[in-house]
Amino acid sequence: MCPAKIAKGAERGYVIPIGGGEEKFNAPIVLQRFVELCGSTEARIIIIPTASQLKDTGACYCDVFKKLGVKDVESLTIDTRADAQNESYAAKILECTGIFMTGGNQLRLSTILGGTPIAQAIRRANAAGVHVAGTSAGAAIMPEHMIAGGPTGALPNEQGVTLTPGLGLINKVIVDQHFSQRNRLGRLLSAVSYNPFAAGIGICEDTAAFIDPAGVIEVVGSGSVTVVDPSEVEYSSMAEAKEGDAITLIGLKLHMLSHGSSFDLNTLKATPAKIQVLH
Amino acid sequence: MCPAKIAKGAERGYVIPIGGGEEKFNAPIVLQRFVELCGSTEARIIIIPTASQLKDTGACYCDVFKKLGVKDVESLTIDTRADAQNESYAAKILECTGIFMTGGNQLRLSTILGGTPIAQAIRRANAAGVHVAGTSAGAAIMPEHMIAGGPTGALPNEQGVTLTPGLGLINKVIVDQHFSQRNRLGRLLSAVSYNPFAAGIGICEDTAAFIDPAGVIEVVGSGSVTVVDPSEVEYSSMAEAKEGDAITLIGLKLHMLSHGSSFDLNTLKATPAKIQVLH
């Protein structure tokens, strides 16, 4: 699914996949930046806790955002496809300045929200300028193609990843999260090598890719974002590989980007941070 | 240390790092290929079991090579720096057609052999056309710069690898082994990013990089060889990074190469296998 169309004169909101495990209390650099983007004390934030099966996930994030100075924050209880038909929820989503999707299981997000008024509202809100952040499962769901699962390891293989349709807020990247912590390069390479049209971005915990409306990613957080750029791939053996075969992949470009670095999804150019601001 | 000089009219032997855990009995594709290169039944193979602290490692490899049809195979007991002064051993090394260094601890190889007549003989033999293979620790010791240790993980960091001087049979690559099995991309990236003059090659178990005298690597085995080509690196934050910092590395090229694929260390060009021969 392509991102929803932008109305004349409007500008799309940011899309902000977070690698999970973002700091919430002590120097919460990722969440702080999201709040600033959404209007600081004037922000109106809607939380979608659907990925989580813990009852208090939404309430916990409400507290976190309140501590960050947000007065208007609400978590929407959407646990079933029936809940996801709720038109008053959809209206709230269209009226906020920022949407935050929690972690949990991304297949809960896709199976419960897919094709519902809530999914449509998130897509339309983002096209109208509302910023959408998601952490862990909430990050995975954002692109057109979502990584639903796959084995750990550094190398790609023929059954190295399970791809499913995502929310389609962005279609230039495939996102993986808990990236170095769970050793997921192999499954990101598998995803990218099936069809090298999209870049793979692997996001560490406590780290986010702030993707602006023009398609420039800025890295924010204590870890790094690994960009796998397959635009110059000359050869992939994925089509011929049988189960267990080692894969040949020739011509990938790889960037490891830390806080303040950026990557332009249009020009495919990476730029280091000007100043290391984390010291 | 640069590779030893080649005498006029001579051709250097192959340098063959193996990722460890090579199959020894059932379809031992890597060892079979090494034996063929060294003259098949006419091969004269010397085993250097110094890396291992197990008494029977040399004898076991003698049996393996005999089962592969080699009549003339001998393991040299070199357990101390005094042993490594043995000139009759050095003479045997200069007279064989293939040298095989076993696995174990690469710091035993470097501390026991470094600067001795045995190390000189291995270097001179290779320059005179003798093929040198090494598995695991025996692979790590081969280049000018040896990876002695380092943490596991997918990402580089400022203290991400311990480099020590190696045998210097080749100086265009840095080798890591048990590569995917022990999740070692991070330390290979660390090694390469300190000084991006050499390519990093990460070798899986039961897999070898057959590096011919012209500097072309052919991949042999059931796993893959990951080539990290830093020749187009635009930026590395290694010089400024403090302990624990995420590293920025921009512009790496990455190839995953399976059986029959090749990589030319002169042109830095990777080529896929023509036929997948492992089926």
Structure description:
Two copies of one chain form a homodimer. With 279 residues, the first copy, chain A, is of the alpha/beta class. Chain A has a single domain (15-265), classed as Class I glutamine amidotransferase (GATase) domain (Rossmann fold). Helix content of chain A is 23%, strand content 27%. The longest helix of chain A is centred in the first third of the chain and has 11 residues, at 57-67. The mean pLDDT of chain A is 94. Chains A and B meet through helix 7, strand 12 and strand 14 of A and helix 7, strand 12 and strand 14 of B. Strand 14 (249-258) of chain A pairs antiparallel with strand 14 (249-258) of chain B, so a sheet runs across the interface.
Provide a brief overview of the structure:
2 copies of one chain form a homodimer. The first copy, chain A, contains 7 helices and 16 strands.
Provide keyphrases for this structure:
globular; alpha/beta; Rossmann fold; 16 strands; homodimer; 279 residues; 5-stranded mixed beta sheet; 9-stranded mixed beta sheet
SSE order and pairing:
The structure is a homodimer of 279-residue chains.
Chain A: E1 15-18, H1 29-38, E2 44-48, H2 57-67, E3 72-75, H3 87-95, E4 98-101, H4 106-113, H5 117-127, E5 131-135, H6 137-140, E6 145-149, E7 162-165, E8 173-176, H7 185-194, E9 199-203, E10 207-211, E11 216-221, E12 224-229, E13 235-236, E14 249-258, E15 262-264, E16 269-271
Parallel strand pairs in A: 1-5, 2-3, 2-4, 4-5, 8-9
Antiparallel strand pairs in A: 1-10, 6-7, 9-12, 10-11, 11-15, 12-14, 13-14, 15-16
Helix pairs in contact in A: 3-5
